[in-house]
Amino acid sequence: MLKVRVVKIGGNELDRPEWVARCARALRAAGGSLVVVHGGGQAVSAWSRRLGLPVEQRDGLRVTPPDVAQVVEMVLAGPMNRLLVSALRIAGLDAIGLSGVDGGLLAARPLAGSLGHVGEVTEVRASLLHSLLLAGLTPVIAPIAPAEAADGPATPLNVNADAAAAAVAAALGAQELLFISDVAGVGIDGVPQAAIPTADVAALVELGAVSGGMAAKLRAAAHAVEAGVRAVRIGDLDMLESVTAGTRLLATPPAPQPA
Question: Domains plus CATH for the chain?
Answer without folding.
Answer: 4-250 (3.40.1160.10)
